[in-house]
Write a structure and sequence with these properties.
Alpha-Beta Plaits, 2 helices, globular, 3-stranded antiparallel sheet, 34% helix, alpha+beta, 71 residues
């Protein structure tokens, strides 16, 4: 299975995300993707969030992330 990595810079996150809790942000994103049927892993990487998911589900993940105003 091919994996895609999406990186989201903290400075681009919309209001409402508590930047002092990056692990919690990653958890929220990961849960939203999983609820959409996407087996993703999100994690805090110092300057950005890293989201890894199956490349075949990139379109669905993009829709979910767009609904969250993350991309």
């Amino acid at each position: 299975m091919t994996t895609t990595t999406i990186r989201i810079d903290y400075s681009t996150l919309p209001e409402g995300f508590d930047l002092s809790r990056p692990d919690a942000i990653a958890e929220v994103i990961e849960q939203a993707l999983r609820e959409s049927g996407i087996p993703a892993e999100a994690s805090d990487v110092l300057s950005h969030l890293k989201i890894e998911l199956p490349t075949a589900q990139l379109g669905a993940a993009s829709r979910t992330l767009a609904e969250m105003r993350l991309i």
